[in-house]
Specification:
It is globular, with a radius of gyration of 15 Å. Helices cover 39% and strands 4% of the residues. The chain has one domain (11-83): Orthogonal Bundle (DNA polymerase, domain 1). 16% of the residues are buried. A two-stranded parallel sheet has the order 1-2. The chain contains four helices and two strands.
């Protein structure tokens, strides 16, 4: 006999592990991918896409705070989970 472990719903498990595997690229992410981030719902994800379409690709992750609904507090929670491509949130600016 094997011990059974409680099962988490697949969607919750996917959301919990998606960001842990690889950071979400703000310049290429779809609405669905953005929604895997904590505190990012459909409306905020849509605003992120609209910001990207209007202003071009994010050059720094800090630009995310220019999107309505993303303040400093939310940004700090998202910082380790996002990227803009070459830059990683956990690296000092200009270093690889």
């Amino acid at each position: 006999m094997s011990a059974q472990t409680p099962k988490r719903p697949a969607a919750a498990k996917a959301k919990a592990t998606a960001s842990a595997i690889a950071p979400v690229n703000l310049n290429t992410a779809t609405i669905a991918q953005l929604q895997t981030l904590p505190r990012i719902g459909a409306s905020t994800a849509q605003r992120i896409l609209e910001y990207r379409q209007k202003n071009g690709n994010f050059k720094k992750i800090e630009e995310l705070m220019n999107v309505k609904g993303i303040g400093e507090k939310n940004f700090l929670k998202l910082k380790p989970l996002i990227t803009v491509g070459a830059e990683r949130a956990d690296r000092p600016e200009g270093r690889r």
